[in-house]
Amino acid sequence: MNRRMALNSMLGAMTAVAALSAGGISMGAAEVLNAEDSCAKHCRECAAVCADCIECCKKDRPECAACCEICSSMCTVCAGMVETKNPNWKAACALCEQTCLDCVKMCEKSSKACCKECAEMCAKCAKACAKMLGK
Known about the structure:
Blueprint (H helix, E strand, L loop, with lengths): L2 H20 L17 H18 L4 H22 L5 H19 L5 H20 L3
Helix pairs in contact: 1-3, 1-4, 2-3, 2-5, 3-4, 4-5
């Protein structure tokens, strides 16, 4: 993946998080993020698996590679916001959950091993984000 595409994806994900957080999603003062129970580890793993899927699919399944690029970027943003206890972590987590579910749908359309692994990891990541959000 070239550096410019990665940067554009990351900026797009960060813009989306900022837009969501402006919509009134806030973190209560009493909430504490517990590193052991957080989604950050799953998000980091998901970002790495999606990056592998991008490389695997970019020639024969460009639509899958594009979806995984967005998912990888969003998972990285979510992990960073949770790890740093950013006040807008819930917005990132909600968007990460939805992005991962979209990626699952895309990757399940393929029989390629990279897509199966990606769909499985994205489902785990979405579940971890949902748990963080109290769903």
